[in-house]
Amino acid sequence: MSWFRITLHRSAIGLPERTRGVLMALGLRRRSQTVFHPVEPQFAGMIMKVKELVLVEEVDKPKTQAELREERRPEPGFYLEKAVPRHDEAALFSSRTRGSVLAAVQAMESEEVRL
Amino acid sequence: MFGMFRITNPLSGGLLWKSPWRMSKFQKLRQRRRLRAVDSVVAILDAALAKQGETLKALERWKEEMPTEAEMLPKDKYTMFDRNAKRYRKSVHKLPKWTRVSQRLNPPGY
Protein backbone atom coordinates (compact mmCIF):
# COMPACT_ATOMS: atom_id res chain seq x y z
CA MET A 1 0.00 0.00 0.00
CA SER A 2 1.39 3.37 -0.93
CA TRP A 3 0.75 6.74 0.61
CA PHE A 4 0.57 10.35 -0.42
CA ARG A 5 3.03 12.53 1.39
CA ILE A 6 1.37 15.95 1.36
CA THR A 7 3.13 19.13 2.45
CA LEU A 8 1.36 22.47 2.69
CA HIS A 9 3.57 24.79 0.66
CA ARG A 10 1.39 27.88 0.22
CA SER A 11 -0.90 29.36 2.83
CA ALA A 12 -4.65 29.43 2.26
CA ILE A 13 -5.10 32.89 3.74
CA GLY A 14 -7.76 34.76 1.80
CA LEU A 15 -8.86 31.72 -0.16
CA PRO A 16 -12.46 30.47 -0.16
CA GLU A 17 -13.86 28.67 2.87
CA ARG A 18 -14.21 25.48 0.80
CA THR A 19 -10.48 25.41 0.07
CA ARG A 20 -9.60 25.97 3.71
CA GLY A 21 -12.06 23.28 4.67
CA VAL A 22 -10.31 20.80 2.38
CA LEU A 23 -6.98 21.62 4.03
CA MET A 24 -8.54 21.12 7.47
CA ALA A 25 -9.94 17.78 6.29
CA LEU A 26 -6.48 16.75 5.10
CA GLY A 27 -5.12 17.75 8.50
CA LEU A 28 -2.98 20.61 7.20
CA ARG A 29 -3.00 23.55 9.59
CA ARG A 30 0.23 25.39 8.93
CA ARG A 31 2.72 25.85 6.14
CA SER A 32 5.37 23.17 5.65
CA GLN A 33 3.34 20.75 7.76
CA THR A 34 3.43 17.24 6.32
CA VAL A 35 0.69 14.62 6.49
CA PHE A 36 0.35 11.13 5.04
CA HIS A 37 -2.80 9.72 3.50
CA PRO A 38 -3.34 6.43 1.66
CA VAL A 39 -3.50 6.45 -2.13
CA GLU A 40 -7.25 6.41 -2.65
CA PRO A 41 -9.53 8.35 -4.98
CA GLN A 42 -11.04 10.19 -1.99
CA PHE A 43 -7.70 11.63 -0.94
CA ALA A 44 -6.62 12.22 -4.53
CA GLY A 45 -9.77 14.29 -5.02
CA MET A 46 -9.00 16.34 -1.93
CA ILE A 47 -5.45 16.97 -3.13
CA MET A 48 -6.86 17.93 -6.52
CA LYS A 49 -8.87 20.69 -4.81
CA VAL A 50 -5.76 22.23 -3.26
CA LYS A 51 -3.17 21.29 -5.89
CA GLU A 52 -1.86 24.85 -6.12
CA LEU A 53 -1.03 24.91 -2.41
CA VAL A 54 0.60 21.56 -1.70
CA LEU A 55 3.63 19.50 -2.64
CA VAL A 56 2.80 15.83 -3.13
CA GLU A 57 4.93 12.69 -3.31
CA GLU A 58 4.00 9.03 -3.40
CA VAL A 59 5.79 7.04 -0.69
CA ASP A 60 5.73 3.41 0.41
CA LYS A 61 4.99 4.00 4.06
CA PRO A 62 4.14 6.97 6.24
CA LYS A 63 6.64 8.54 8.58
CA THR A 64 5.97 9.33 12.20
CA GLN A 65 6.30 12.82 13.60
CA ALA A 66 9.66 11.87 15.13
CA GLU A 67 10.98 10.58 11.80
CA LEU A 68 9.87 13.78 10.06
CA ARG A 69 11.74 15.81 12.67
CA GLU A 70 14.79 13.63 12.22
CA GLU A 71 14.66 14.28 8.48
CA ARG A 72 14.99 18.01 9.07
CA ARG A 73 17.92 17.71 11.48
CA PRO A 74 21.10 19.04 9.91
CA GLU A 75 24.01 16.64 9.54
CA PRO A 76 26.21 16.49 12.63
CA GLY A 77 29.83 17.54 12.48
CA PHE A 78 31.46 20.32 10.55
CA TYR A 79 33.67 20.97 7.60
CA LEU A 80 37.27 21.88 8.24
CA GLU A 81 38.66 24.11 5.56
CA LYS A 82 42.40 24.50 5.51
CA ALA A 83 43.73 28.02 5.33
CA VAL A 84 45.48 28.69 2.07
CA PRO A 85 49.17 29.48 2.60
CA ARG A 86 49.96 33.14 2.37
CA HIS A 87 52.38 33.00 -0.55
CA ASP A 88 49.79 31.09 -2.60
CA GLU A 89 47.22 33.73 -1.75
CA ALA A 90 49.54 36.45 -2.97
CA ALA A 91 50.13 34.50 -6.17
CA LEU A 92 46.38 34.09 -6.63
CA PHE A 93 45.69 37.80 -6.39
CA SER A 94 48.70 38.89 -8.39
CA SER A 95 48.00 36.57 -11.31
CA ARG A 96 45.46 38.16 -13.60
CA THR A 97 44.88 35.11 -15.79
CA ARG A 98 41.60 33.33 -15.34
CA GLY A 99 43.04 29.80 -15.65
CA SER A 100 45.39 30.08 -12.69
CA VAL A 101 42.63 31.53 -10.44
CA LEU A 102 40.36 28.64 -11.37
CA ALA A 103 43.13 26.14 -10.64
CA ALA A 104 43.76 27.73 -7.27
CA VAL A 105 40.04 27.63 -6.40
CA GLN A 106 39.89 23.97 -7.38
CA ALA A 107 42.92 23.24 -5.24
CA MET A 108 41.22 24.94 -2.29
CA GLU A 109 38.07 22.93 -2.81
CA SER A 110 39.95 19.65 -2.94
CA GLU A 111 41.58 20.46 0.39
CA GLU A 112 38.18 20.69 2.07
CA VAL A 113 38.08 17.86 4.58
CA ARG A 114 34.93 16.20 5.86
CA LEU A 115 35.13 15.23 9.53
CA MET B 1 2.37 72.84 -9.52
CA PHE B 2 5.85 71.97 -8.32
CA GLY B 3 7.33 71.55 -4.88
CA MET B 4 5.86 70.21 -1.69
CA PHE B 5 2.20 71.02 -2.41
CA ARG B 6 1.99 69.79 -5.96
CA ILE B 7 -1.16 67.94 -6.85
CA THR B 8 -0.33 64.28 -7.27
CA ASN B 9 -2.61 61.30 -7.10
CA PRO B 10 -1.54 60.11 -3.64
CA LEU B 11 -1.74 63.62 -2.19
CA SER B 12 -5.17 64.45 -3.53
CA GLY B 13 -6.77 61.06 -3.28
CA GLY B 14 -5.01 59.45 -0.36
CA LEU B 15 -4.21 55.80 -0.86
CA LEU B 16 -2.93 54.84 -4.28
CA TRP B 17 -1.68 51.40 -5.15
CA LYS B 18 0.09 51.03 -8.40
CA SER B 19 0.99 47.83 -10.13
CA PRO B 20 2.81 47.65 -13.44
CA TRP B 21 0.71 46.66 -16.41
CA ARG B 22 3.02 43.84 -17.43
CA MET B 23 4.93 41.25 -15.44
CA SER B 24 8.69 41.32 -15.02
CA LYS B 25 10.77 38.45 -16.37
CA PHE B 26 11.25 37.20 -12.82
CA GLN B 27 7.50 37.14 -12.19
CA LYS B 28 7.11 35.22 -15.42
CA LEU B 29 9.80 32.75 -14.37
CA ARG B 30 8.08 32.11 -11.05
CA GLN B 31 4.74 31.82 -12.81
CA ARG B 32 6.16 29.09 -15.08
CA ARG B 33 7.57 27.29 -12.06
CA ARG B 34 4.20 27.40 -10.33
CA LEU B 35 2.47 26.06 -13.44
CA ARG B 36 4.97 23.21 -13.59
CA ALA B 37 4.51 22.48 -9.88
CA VAL B 38 0.76 22.05 -10.41
CA ASP B 39 1.47 19.86 -13.45
CA SER B 40 3.75 17.66 -11.36
CA VAL B 41 1.13 17.28 -8.59
CA VAL B 42 -1.44 16.21 -11.18
CA ALA B 43 1.04 13.78 -12.76
CA ILE B 44 1.88 12.23 -9.37
CA LEU B 45 -1.80 11.78 -8.50
CA ASP B 46 -2.46 10.23 -11.89
CA ALA B 47 0.49 7.82 -11.66
CA ALA B 48 -0.33 6.78 -8.10
CA LEU B 49 -3.99 6.09 -8.91
CA ALA B 50 -3.17 4.33 -12.18
CA LYS B 51 -0.93 1.88 -10.28
CA GLN B 52 -3.96 0.80 -8.26
CA GLY B 53 -6.25 0.73 -11.26
CA GLU B 54 -8.29 3.63 -9.91
CA THR B 55 -9.26 6.85 -11.59
CA LEU B 56 -10.85 10.15 -10.70
CA LYS B 57 -13.33 12.22 -12.62
CA ALA B 58 -11.78 15.54 -11.66
CA LEU B 59 -8.35 14.26 -12.66
CA GLU B 60 -9.55 12.94 -16.02
CA ARG B 61 -11.28 16.20 -16.70
CA TRP B 62 -8.21 18.22 -15.82
CA LYS B 63 -6.02 16.11 -18.10
CA GLU B 64 -8.55 16.40 -20.91
CA GLU B 65 -9.13 20.14 -20.72
CA MET B 66 -6.08 21.79 -19.23
CA PRO B 67 -2.89 22.30 -21.23
CA THR B 68 0.38 21.63 -19.42
CA GLU B 69 2.92 24.38 -18.96
CA ALA B 70 4.86 23.20 -22.03
CA GLU B 71 1.74 23.16 -24.17
CA MET B 72 0.57 26.64 -23.21
CA LEU B 73 1.27 29.66 -25.35
CA PRO B 74 3.18 32.49 -23.68
CA LYS B 75 0.09 34.63 -24.26
CA ASP B 76 -1.98 32.33 -22.07
CA LYS B 77 0.71 31.91 -19.41
CA TYR B 78 1.11 35.60 -18.70
CA THR B 79 -2.12 37.25 -19.80
CA MET B 80 -5.79 36.47 -19.47
CA PHE B 81 -9.05 37.49 -21.06
CA ASP B 82 -10.71 40.62 -19.74
CA ARG B 83 -13.74 42.03 -21.51
CA ASN B 84 -13.01 45.55 -20.28
CA ALA B 85 -9.34 45.67 -21.17
CA LYS B 86 -7.98 47.12 -24.35
CA ARG B 87 -7.67 44.31 -26.90
CA TYR B 88 -9.41 42.02 -24.37
CA ARG B 89 -6.28 41.00 -22.51
CA LYS B 90 -4.83 41.89 -19.13
CA SER B 91 -1.74 40.64 -17.40
CA VAL B 92 -2.42 37.61 -15.24
CA HIS B 93 -0.96 39.27 -12.14
CA LYS B 94 -4.04 41.49 -12.03
CA LEU B 95 -6.08 38.42 -11.06
CA PRO B 96 -6.75 38.33 -7.30
CA LYS B 97 -4.71 35.58 -5.56
CA TRP B 98 -3.08 34.89 -8.92
CA THR B 99 -0.20 32.88 -7.45
CA ARG B 100 -2.56 30.42 -5.81
CA VAL B 101 -5.26 29.86 -8.42
CA SER B 102 -5.17 28.08 -11.75
CA GLN B 103 -5.89 30.33 -14.70
CA ARG B 104 -4.97 28.50 -17.89
CA LEU B 105 -7.88 28.68 -20.30
CA ASN B 106 -9.24 31.67 -22.14
CA PRO B 107 -12.24 32.01 -24.41
CA PRO B 108 -11.50 30.74 -27.91
CA GLY B 109 -10.73 33.51 -30.35
CA TYR B 110 -9.43 35.89 -27.67
TrEMBL record, chain A:
SUPFAM superfamilies: Ribosomal protein L30p/L7e
Cellular location(s): Mitochondrion
Residue stretches making up the Large ribosomal subunit protein uL30-like ferredoxin-like fold domain: 4-54
Keyword Ribosomal protein: yes
Origin superkingdom: Eukaryota
GO BP, one annotated term: translation
Any single Pfam family the record assigns to this protein: Ribosomal_L30
InterPro entries: Ribo_uL30_ferredoxin-like_sf, Ribosomal_uL30_bac-type, Ribosomal_uL30_CS, Ribosomal_uL30_ferredoxin-like
Chief location: mitochondrion
Keyword vocabulary terms for this entry: Mitochondrion, Ribonucleoprotein, Ribosomal protein
Cellular component terms per the entry's GO annotation: large ribosomal subunit; mitochondrion
Keyword hit for Ribonucleoprotein: yes
Single GO term (MF): structural constituent of ribosome
NCBIfam families associated with the record: rpmD_bact (TIGR01308)
Similarity annotation: Belongs to the universal ribosomal protein uL30 family.
Annotated function: Component of the mitochondrial ribosome (mitoribosome), a dedicated translation machinery responsible for the synthesis of mitochondrial genome-encoded proteins, including at least some of the essential transmembrane subunits of the mitochondrial respiratory chain. The mitoribosomes are attached to the mitochondrial inner membrane and translation products are cotranslationally integrated into the membrane.
Name of this chain's protein: Large ribosomal subunit protein uL30m
Automatic annotation (TrEMBL), chain B:
Main localization, broad class: mitochondrion
Oligomer and partners: Component of the mitochondrial large ribosomal subunit.
Annotated keywords: Mitochondrion, Ribonucleoprotein, Ribosomal protein
Lineage: Eukaryota, Fungi, Dikarya, Ascomycota, Pezizomycotina
Alphabetical list of Pfam families matching this protein: L31
GO biological process: mitochondrial translation
InterPro entries (UniProt xref): Ribosomal_mL60
Localization (cell): Mitochondrion
Molecular function in Gene Ontology: structural constituent of ribosome
Keyword Iron: no
Source organism per UniProt: Bombardia bombarda
Protein name from the UniProt record: Large ribosomal subunit protein mL60
GO cellular component: mitochondrial large ribosomal subunit
